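Researcher: I'm preparing a figure for a lab meeting and need a structural model of a single chain. I don't have an experimental structure, so a prediction will have to do for now. The sequence is pasted below. Please return the structure as tokens so I can convert it later.
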Amino acid sequence: MKRHFLLPLTLGLVCMGVLFASDVKTDYDHKADFGHIKSYSWIHSKATNGLWADRIMEDVDKALAAKGWTRVESGGDAGVAAFGSTRTEQNLETFYNGFGGGWYWRGFGGPTTTYVTTTRVGSLVVDIFDSSTKKLMWRGMGSDVLSSKPEKNEHKLENTVEEMFKHFPPHSGG
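Model: Understood. Here is the structure written out token by token.
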């Protein structure tokens, strides 16, 4: 009896993880020496929504603090810049009706209903520069940072930043 509930529960948790997951990618200069970086200063944090600029900074600050980096107002070993953007995207969703009276493949022979849905799409880019050379050392990019429900967006942003910095700092040849 317990086995019958275990599979649906596991599948449900996996699906929730997929729904809340954003697409995160990172890249870095393989010659950069991350070992000497102990502090950082913000260059800027910009977002299409002013509230998000502060939230991005807070989440990145938490992630870097967890890695042992200290934020200083100016003169840090590294400079951090972040840019968050949102846009709306329209999608067509088609539902095939008439399955009750017979089999219709992809709507052939039966009526269809198409709706236009508008979805907010958000992306985040975080760059880290070596202050002494002014060269880009590391870049984190996240897409699908926003959900369709505004009350979940803060949590989704936090998860995206956490995922970005999961394997930070990278091991480099220095």
